[in-house]
Design brief:
alpha+beta; single chain; ten-stranded mixed β-sheet; about 30% strand; globular; Pseudouridine synthase
Length: about 240
């Protein structure tokens, strides 16, 4: 596990795509988890996740090294004091930057959330996004002779479940590789032509004020080989992901 940042209070890793943060009965067949792997890597040190990344999403994941620090940090995430930056490849051309304020109904799992309130009102969900690069490929998908894609930077101001995927779906700019909210035709094309079998969503950076030193911290995570292959195929410099 790549450790991006570590001190006496916090540790951050670059979570691989396809890896669960912690054990879940919903994925009983899984054998590798970020928490257990990191704990073993740190010699048995307990770690406490401060936020979550979905299984198919890669990138910066921050942990506290004590329950006391976790209790101190959690309100900072809830209070939007921690800034998150994501990058994604989406279908279509996103032409301009904007802020999407589109409330989302809570996504409930049929089994684990069967006792939850089913008719809960939509919750506030806000995402700022901007296009960084666009491409048109000669590979047809559907009825069109070419396919268009955009590299997008996204900064969520709220933290709803699957917020970025659902917001991009709402804009009809589905994130490539999203099997729940995406477009299967484009997902299939990326698998066949770019050997890309993952969700093209990456948590690139986390910005916060350190709770002990009071100094600003920016933690960045590099992308994996699948991302690099797509970026190279589209002639997008990796420096775009540092924007």
């Amino acid at each position: 596990m790549e450790i991006l940042y570590q001190d006496d209070w916090l540790v951050a890793v670059n979570k691989p795509a396809g890896m669960l943060v912690h054990r879940s009965w919903l994925d009983r067949h899984e054998t590798r988890f970020v928490m257990q792997t990191l704990r073993d890597q740190l010699g048995g040190q307990h770690v406490f996740p401060l936020h979550r990344l979905d299984k198919p999403t890669s990138g910066v994941l921050l942990f506290a090294l004590s329950s006391e620090m976790a209790a101190e940090m959690m309100p900072k995430f809830a209070g939007r004091e921690v800034k998150k930056t994501y990058h994604a490849v989406v279908r279509g051309w996103v032409k301009e930057a904007a802020v999407l304020d589109y409330p989302l109904k809570e996504e409930l799992d049929k089994m684990s959330d069967k006792r939850a309130l089913q008719d809960k009102a939509p919750q506030e969900a806000v995402t700022a996004y901007r296009p960084l690069a666009r491409v048109e490929t000669p590979i047809p998908v559907g009825r069109y002779a070419t396919s268009r894609y955009t590299l997008v930077e996204m900064k969520p101001e709220t933290g709803r479940k699957h917020q970025l995927r659902r917001h991009m779906h709402h804009l009809s700019h589905h994130i490539i590789g999203d099997v729940n909210h995406g477009d299967g035709r484009h997902n299939r094309m990326f698998r066949e032509h770019y050997d890309c079998h993952r969700l093209m969503l990456h948590a690139s950076a986390l910005e916060l004020i350190h709770p002990r030193t009071g100094l600003p911290i920016v933690i960045r995570a590099a992308v994996d080989q699948s991302w690099q292959t797509v970026m190279q195929a589209f002639e997008w410099p990796l420096s775009y992901l540092e924007a």
